[in-house]
């Protein structure tokens, strides 16, 4: 089994030594996406804006890997504050349709670059 790195110019470059995603065994494993605007490299101030950008970045990486949001099997949502859970859900529900992916959500002590939300995913790939 060969693993293939995935890179999308429509999403921000990784902020560390990792790939945006890896494709292997018919799956795409997308690293956590922050709400960074890929054009400016900046994060907007609100959790809603960051969630929307994180999901758009996730979508861009999935598409670069021959996948799409409809093929997502599982997501993990990391929040700087669990009080933002319902706000992020309102944005998240605009990107995913039934049957919704399985999901876990956690509050964490901190996110890279001071982010408020980070979202990762595992999806079926159309390339393997």
Folded structure, characterized:
This protein is of the alpha+beta class and 128 residues long. It has one domain: 60s Ribosomal Protein L30, Chain: A. Helix content is 23%, strand content 29%. It has 2 helices and 6 strands. A 6-stranded mixed β-sheet has the order 1-2-3-6-4-5, covered by helices on one side. It is globular.
* Number of H/I helices: 2
Q: Which whole number gives the mean pLDDT?
A: 96
Overall strand count: 6
The helical percent reads 10-25%
> What Rg, in angstroms, do the CA atoms define?
14 Å
End-to-end Cα distance, whole Å, is: 10 Å
CATH topology: 60s Ribosomal Protein L30, Chain: A
For the record, the CATH architecture stands as: 2-Layer Sandwich
Which runs of at least 5 residues are low in confidence (pLDDT < 50)?
A: none
CATH class category name = Alpha Beta
N-to-C SSE string, H for helix and E for strand: EEEHEHEE
Determine the CATH superfamily.
Answer: RutC-like
* Structural class assignment: alpha+beta
Question: Judging from the principal axes of the Cα atoms, what is the shape?
Answer: globular
How much strand?
A: 25-35%
Main β-sheet, spatial strand arrangement: 1-2-3-6-4-5
Oligomer: single chain
Major sheet size, sense and barrel closure: 6 strands, mixed
Q: How many structurally independent domains?
A: 1
């Amino acid at each position: 089994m060969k693993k293939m790195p995935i890179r999308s110019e429509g999403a921000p470059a990784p902020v560390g030594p990792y790939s945006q995603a890896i494709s292997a065994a018919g799956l795409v494993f997308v690293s956590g996406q922050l709400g960074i605007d890929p054009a400016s490299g900046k994060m907007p101030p609100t959790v809603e804006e960051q969630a929307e950008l994180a999901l758009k970045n996730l979508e861009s990486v999935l598409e670069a890997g021959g996948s799409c949001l409809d093929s997502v099997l599982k997501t993990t949502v990391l929040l700087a504050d669990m009080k933002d859970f319902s706000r992020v859900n309102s944005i998240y529900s605009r990107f995913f349709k039934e049957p919704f992916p399985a999901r876990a959500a956690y509050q964490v002590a901190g996110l890279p670059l001071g982010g408020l939300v980070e979202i990762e995913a595992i999806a079926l790939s159309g390339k393997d």
